[in-house]
Amino acid sequence: MNTLQITVVGAGVMGKGIAYSCAVSGHKVYLNDKNEEVLAKSKSDIEELLNSSFEKGFLQKDVYENAKENLKFETDLTVAAKDADLVIEAVLEKMDLKISIFQQLDKICKPEAILATNTSTMSPTEIGAQTSRPDKVVAMHFFNPVHKMKLVEVIRGLETSDETVQVAKDVSTSLNKQAVEVNEFPGFVTSRMNCLIGNEAMNLLMEGVASAEDIDKAMKLGLNHPMGPLELADLVGLDTRLRNMEYLYQTLGEKYRPCPLLIKYVKAGRLGKKSGSGFYDYN
What's the CA gap between 84 and 6, in Å, rounded? Predict the structure, then answer.
């Protein structure tokens, strides 16, 4: 597909991964975050990944150099988004925060721009309804780490147009990923399944059925999962997983009630890999 101007809003783990993948695929990218320290850290991390990928031969010289030229980092949302063909929001899984950003983008972006939310559970219909362009609002659920994971869930809201869905699929293909189209329902496909598996693994640990290591080993060797569910929860972030579980519990009912051990760990600040400890110790 043609080169697009893409703006990624939110420079956390997912945002910087999406920005990197878009840049190495030839798109022009603004990475936006109002927090200067977060943006500076993401800039450093992306440059380190670019350099490492080039040195190891994963990126050709022309791709490496173009990616560095394609990337810009900006704290002002208006500057970052006013010329965007596609905006991908990648902030915390908080509906009021997402809606606030989409209302701002609706005023800033050109009328034909598509607005996508990178969410694992939340409703593009609800988000799109707060804008003047619900037909151009879609969810694109990327997976962590973005530069390695090959799937993008493209979630169609009630008013999302066929054209918008196709653009989201085409962009996913341009990033060397495969898209699956999903009709909106809480949790989509992967999060509904993954949250259930992870929550049951936490219950097993809490009940003393097996250690974290043996639960994960059983899932990897017995069911051919590439990562154990507790390892994965630590990677995602236990606070993020808890927000997802709370949303699914609210919308889908009792079977998604968060494990008490997950709640306890989050209260204790054991958030997984990013905090240094979760179900495993990373210090």
Answer: 5
Express each pLDDT in 116-136 by its tens digit: 999 988 899 999 999 999 999
Residues ≥6 apart with Cβ < 8 Å to 184:
123, 124, 125, 139, 155, 156, 157, 158
Give this prediction's pTM: 0.86
CA atoms lying within 13 Å on the CB side of residue 281:
1
pLDDT of residue 283: 86
Q: What is the dihedral angle through the alpha carbons of 60, 149, 233, 56, rounded to the nearest 10 degrees? A: -20
d(C-alpha 82, C-alpha 67), whole Å: 21
Phi first, then psi, for residue 137 (nearest 5°) are -110, 130
pLDDT, tens digit (0-9, with 9 covering 90-100), for 134-149:
999 999 999 988 999 9
3-state secondary structure of 221: helix
Which residue intervals of the chain are DSSP H helices? 13-24, 36-55, 61-70, 77-81, 95-108, 124-128, 162-174, 190-206, 212-223, 229-236, 238-252, 260-267
Task: In whole angstroms, give the CA distance from residue 254 to residue 11.
Answer: 34
* pLDDT on residue 144: 86
